[in-house]
Write a structure and sequence with these properties.
The chain is mainly beta. Helices cover 13% and strands 42% of the residues. Among the domains are: 103 residues, Ribosome hibernation promotion factor-like (Double Stranded RNA Binding Domain), CATH 3.30.160; 167 residues, Beta Barrel (Porin). It is built from 7 helices and 18 strands. A hairpin with a 4-residue loop joins strand 3 and strand 4.
């Protein structure tokens, strides 16, 4: 009978009410713990998250910063999985993870941290305010809008004023000072200022509000990814089948990176020794120096990218015959090539990039070297291959 040990899934091994964190140097777990306590309003003596919640955060370094994976699991089975990429500061990435986790644990976090327009409360007004009684002696009779006497409207219905004599209206005063139609009315309750958008729609469901943590200075706003990056590289290269011998050398690269595009200029120096001429002791040393213009499409995933490129190269070929060759001397020719390249790039740390490339090229213009008076020739091959290893520094 065979016995097989099966490891339980990660979710089964994790403890309830715990926060697990794994990250490289420079990512402090205290940042995540403090942010969770702040958003969830947990007491210092309590755990950072409730007992029925498990939070797992894994951060790792990428080519242009850090990449973070967040998993939140609750007792009711609800899970939240998020992946945040391309943050150049790990503390900002952890702040973002804490906010997402807090919203997944307690959706009311957004409500507790809503900031809307400031609304100034108006004066207390009773539910059914009664108008102030109008003094019958303050206005002349017959000044009502419909011609009824105000004296009979305030006193008893018969029009008696209980011994208070009504003054006769002065025609001159009536002509110079018209009655204020708003006199005797209560002052209107102060309302919102229509010119102020925040006061025009106080707490209107259609009025936009924003959710923010209490400390606006520590908002987890990720810096935008740089539009264009510069990469300066140095490496070793080997050429195969360029001549009837293998060439080795060094190369320098200058590249501009923008998202998935890569434009590169490569300068290379290759040396070939002892290219035979078919006779004992007869050989030629060839020095190849030139440049290539390279354009690439480089899809990226995390710290890895795979550039697929086309290239156009122009190089000078300088050949020098050995002393055994009759009339030995030096000659220089030009080589023009067109090719394709595929490679892989790995950015283990910020501002560092390692690359491996292989390419095949066709020589559109092939140099030929020969020995005067003989049919001994050295000709560049139609198709050549090259492999390169490079290291580059990336800014910013």
């Amino acid at each position: 009978m065979a016995i097989t040990f099966v490891s339980p899934p990660l979710s089964a091994r994790a403890e309830r009410g715990s926060v697990s964190f794994a990250g490289p140097q420079g990512c402090a777990e205290q940042t995540l713990d403090q942010a969770l306590r702040r958003y969830l309003e947990r007491a210092p003596e309590d755990a950072a998250v409730p007992d029925d919640v498990t939070v797992r955060v894994v951060a790792r370094a990428s080519g242009r910063g850090f990449v973070l994976t967040l998993d939140v699991q609750r007792a009711d089975g609800a899970t939240t999985h998020r992946r945040v990429r391309h943050a150049r500061r790990c503390d900002l990435l952890l702040e973002t993870a804490a906010l997402i986790a807090a919203l997944a644990i307690d959706p009311d976090v957004a409500g507790r941290h809503v900031t809307g327009p400031d609304v100034q409360p108006g004066p207390d007004v009773p539910p059914n305010p009664e108008p102030d009684p109008v003094d019958a002696a303050a206005e002349p009779a017959g000044s009502g809008v419909d011609g009824t006497e105000l004296g009979s409207a305030v006193g008893d219905p018969s029009g008696a004023t209980d011994g208070v004599a009504e003054p006769e209206p002065d025609p001159g005063d009536a002509a110079t000072e018209p009655a204020d139609p708003t006199e005797g009315e209560a002052d209107p309750e102060p309302g919102p200022d229509a010119s102020d958008p925040a006061q025009a729609h106080p707490l209107d469901p259609g009025h936009a509000v924003t959710a923010a943590p209490p400390d606006a200075g520590s908002l987890p706003v990720l810096p935008p990814e740089p539009a264009v990056q510069l990469a300066l590289g140095v490496g070793a290269t080997m050429a195969f089948h360029l001549y009837p011998a293998t060439a080795g050398g060094v190369q320098l690269t200058v590249a501009l990176l923008r998202r998935r595009m890569r434009v590169e200029l490569r300068l290379a120096l290759l040396g070939l020794r002892h290219v035979g001429l078919g006779e004992p002791g007869w050989n030629v040393r060839v020095l190849d120096y030139g440049g290539d213009a390279v354009g690439c499409y480089a899809p990226r995933r995390g710290a890895w990218s795979v550039p697929v490129c086309g290239l156009f190269g122009v190089a000078g070929e300088s050949a020098r015959a050995s002393a055994q060759v009759p009339q030995a001397g030096r000659a220089t020719r030009t080589r023009v090539s067109l090719g394709q390249r595929v490679g892989v790039r790995w950015a283990p740390r910020r501002r560092h990039e390692l690359g491996l490339d292989v390419e095949v090229s066709e020589q559109l213009l092939r140099p030929v070297f020969g020995v005067a008076g003989t049919d001994r020739l050295v000709r560049a091959q139609r198709v050549a291959y090259r492999a390169s290893v490079t290291w580059a520094a990336v800014w910013p």
